[in-house]
# Entry
Amino acid sequence: MAKYVYPAIFIQEESGFSIRFPDFESCYTSAENLSDAIAMSEDVLCLTLYDLEEAGEEIPKVSKIQDIKVSENEFTTLISCDTIEYRKFFDNKAVKKTLTIPSWLNTMAERQNINFSMTLQNALKNELHIN
# Structure
């Protein structure tokens, strides 16, 4: 899980834009205008990278944008993706975890009405350097 930046090729068409990522075989999208094309390209890139991370597959090496050849109706730009932020937004379901703590610590925490789930979440975010 990390932040990524990959080059995308935007192809101007009559109905808008088609976008493909040369470093990914099946990562492409389209949109009617440039603003939507950028948003859609960010989304499809994050989804592709998320799927690769979940499957434990290798993340492709990033091509140099200057090495990508395009036609007259095409241009390249860099698109960024933060799969941690993507996970926070799209994979936010709660999962139950069972843990073991000393009895004395449990008693003290319950007396203070400490929310165990929230405390564990905060500790994990801190340990993983996620805000």
The two ends are 14 Å apart (CA to CA). Helices lie at 34-55, 83-90, 103-111, 116-127. The chain has two domains: 3-90, 94-131. The CA atoms of residues 17 and 34 lie 7 Å apart.
